[in-house]
Amino acid sequence: MSQALEFVAPEEQARANFYGLLARLFYAPPDASVLKALAMADELDAEDESVAACWRGLMAAAAATEAQAVRAEYDEVFVGTGKAPVTPYACAYSLRYTNETPLAALRADLAALGLARREQAGEPEDHIAALCDTMRHLIAGERRPLAEQQRFFARWIGPNYEALCSAIEASERTSFYRHVARMAKAFFSLEQAAFEML
User: SS3 for 126?
Assistant: First the structure.
């Protein structure tokens, strides 16, 4: 007897897709096919006009950007030589004391969820792309209860996203990623507001 497939509600799948897109854009610069897909994406039917406006801005930026240019921007902003101008690691925006060990706490939280970094992954777990991918997995992969999603978001994304996105927006070196940051900030803000209503 075959097991019934678990249904993911359309709005939950949409949330997971947004997290997946942000994970992809923050993990590595988009190639030509990703830029084309973004440029040709459907308008966002969102109740929050700021989210819809940020989505339109991201679509327009994708249409006006060449893959080679966005690759150079990504490397210059997030990789750099020596210290990157903007760090994509969330813990950098929440550390208050030098003796804090947020990565150890994050690894413990991930382990409690049955998750761990792949051995071949070179980035620490607090990379914003990894945090977004974890949220995508909790929503659509494991269909975890909203309370569990809220706990992870509130501890690892909520306290850090505004400072991270503002740093990207304020950088003189960003063009395409300024729109990514605006979209991320609007989406995370919407998520935070929804979680606070739980």
Answer: coil
CB-CB contact of 105 with 151 (8 Å)? no
Q: Residue 158 in 3-state DSSP? A: coil
pLDDT digits (tens, 9 = 90+) for 31-62: 999 999 999 999 887 777 899 999 999 999 99
State yes or no: pLDDT of 1 exceeds 50.
no
Angle between helices 10-27 and 176-196 (to 10 degrees): 140
At residue 171's C-alpha, the angle toward residues 102 and 135, to 5°, is: 40
pLDDT tens for residues 84-136?
A: 899 999 988 886 655 567 888 899 999 998 887 777 666 788 999 999 999 99
Residue 89, beta-bridge partner list: 127
Find where tokens 């927006």 sit.
169
Distance of CA 137 to the CA centre of its chain: 12
Determine the pLDDT at residue 141.
Answer: 87
DSSP state of 127: B
What contacts 81, CB < 8 A, 6 or more positions away?
Answer: none
| Inter-CA distances, 123 with 42, 93, 109, 111, 192, Å | 32, 17, 17, 17, 25
Query: Max CA-CA distance within the chain?
Result: 59
